[in-house]
Automatic annotation (TrEMBL):
Family from the record: Belongs to the FPP/GGPP synthase family.
Listed InterPro entries: Isoprenoid_synthase_dom_sf, Polyprenyl_synt
Molecular-function GO terms, alphabetical: prenyltransferase activity
Top-level taxon: Eukaryota
TM ranges: none
Protein name: Decaprenyl-diphosphate synthase subunit 2
Gene Ontology CC terms, in alphabetical order: mitochondrion; transferase complex
Source species: Laodelphax striatellus
GO annotation, biological process: isoprenoid biosynthetic process; pheromone biosynthetic process; ubiquinone biosynthetic process
Record's keyword annotation contains Transferase: yes
Keyword line: Transferase
Length: 412
């Protein structure tokens, strides 16, 4: 659900006399306007997410996701009406207005959530439901089944939990490490402190609700499984070298690029999607073997997706602006460092802040090295492994939709 479609839906409900929708209509209008009024260049994880770019996506990807939504009857966006119309989210949106002009990272996160670009991980709930439908369910009470979508109500709840956990993690990552002397101007310091409060509380709200939704499923094994995914997300934020704002930097040795990249991204992405796919098969009554296959599928799909995102700044025809920032722990950079460790001298300028790195120099060096081709190979390998896992499921619209998403991702 894009910001525009959300706005139209709120408008319709407001005309029907829905008080919450009226309130949210004002909120949506203001937030969409303020985010459109300020172009935000984001880091590599949310690279070039904008309304304009979303309209210019390659049709294959849009078509694959659109067809997948029809299979399960589920929008890819976390911003469903149930959450959009809540007083808590409405208040957060109103407070965001105060951050305009402050350049607080939370604004970047808000923009990435409102606009439905392919770089969003908001399609994760869709992936979970597609796996659910592809596998089917065993010995389940008919009252538990959403017959229109072909999945269980508990599986739909788990898909929402997955999106909430991911979203809360992204919001929490928007916190700024404020240390003495960083913001000498009192007005700027106040803005950044206020932004931190909103990021912390809104992230906690989402995480708290995800825990409540998870507990309501009354499945202790599932709670333990998803809790371990949250633990992995947290651990991923403390792995390896970091600058003062906790932005990641490559290992000082520049060696073992593949192992380093894989460990980082399994913790920060693969674990959550993999364990969500595993958990949804547990809810359906499947055995441990099929559950393990679900985990493998989610993990490899997440890694293939991340490799695809890492390639964006180095792809011909991309929206990358020369000299702008990108992830220094992306696969092309880390593979290049194995080939040419001397580039670490430039990257080490970012030990204080990654903004001190000459990104034009790093981009030029990586573009001429083997990192790009190795990353493309890495993306294909994980895509192929995800495809192989799909073979364990019977032929169905859901399995075809998952295959189409993997193929479309490789053509981005």
């Amino acid at each position: 659900m894009s910001a525009c479609s959300t706005l139209k839906l709120c408008s319709y409900l407001a005309k029907q006399g829905n008080y919450g929708a009226r309130k949210s209509l004002v909120v949506c209008s203001n937030v969409c306007a303020l985010l459109d009024s300020k172009r935000i260049h984001t880091s590599s994880r949310n690279f070039n997410i904008s309304g304009k770019l979303a309209q210019n996506q390659r049709p294959d990807w849009n078509r694959a996701v659109s067809e997948a939504e029809k299979v399960v009857g589920y929008p890819t966006s976390f911003l469903s009406l149930r959450w959009l119309l809540s007083d808590e989210i409405a208040n957060v949106a109103l407070h965001l207005r105060k951050l305009v002009g402050s350049n607080h990272p939370l604004l970047k996160t808000a923009k990435s959530l409102l606009y439905n670009g392919r770089n969003n991980m908001q399609a994760w709930g869709l992936i979970v439901l597609l796996i659910s439908k592809a596998a089917g369910h065993l010995n389940v009470d008919e009252m538990e089944e959403d017959k229109a979508a072909g999945v269980l109500h508990s599986q739909r709840a788990l898909a929402e939990v997955t999106e909430m956990i991911r979203t809360s993690h992204l919001v929490h990552k928007g916190l700024v490490n404020i240390y003495p002397g960083l913001y000498p101007e009192p007005a700027v310091l106040n803005d950044m402190t206020f932004g931190n409060k909103i990021a912390l509380l809104s992230g906690d709200y989402l995480l708290g609700n995800s825990c409540a939704e998870l507990a309501a499923l009354r499945n202790q094994d599932l709670v333990e499984l998803m809790s371990s995914a949250v633990r992995d997300l947290a651990e991923g934020e403390f792995l390896g070298r970091r600058d003062k704002q906790n932005n990641p930097l490559p290992d000082a040795s520049g060696a073992c690029a593949l192992d380093d990249w894989t460990t980082r991204n399994v913790l920060s992405a693969g674990s959550l999607l993999g364990k969500s796919c595993q958990g949804t098969l547990k809810l359906a009554g499947h055995g441990t073997h099929l559950q393990d296959q679900g985990y493998k599928f989610g993990k490899h799909l997440a890694l293939a997706w991340q490799a695809c995102l890492d390639l964006e700044p180095f792809t011909n025809g991309s929206q990358y602006v020369p000299g702008s920032m990108f992830s220094l722990t992306s696969a092309p950079v880390m593979f290049h460092l194995e080939h040419d460790p001397s580039l670490l001298d430039e990257i080490d300028n970012g030990l204080e802040s990654v903004q001190n790195v000459d990104y034009a120099k790093v981009h030029s060096a990586v573009s001429k090295g083997p990192g790009i081709s190795l990353t493309k190979q890495l993306q294909k390998e994980h895509s192929q492994k995800a495809m192989e896992v799909l073979e364990v499921f019977r032929d169905s619209d859901a399995r075809t939709a998952l295959s189409n998403i993997i193929v479309a991702m490789g053509e981005l």
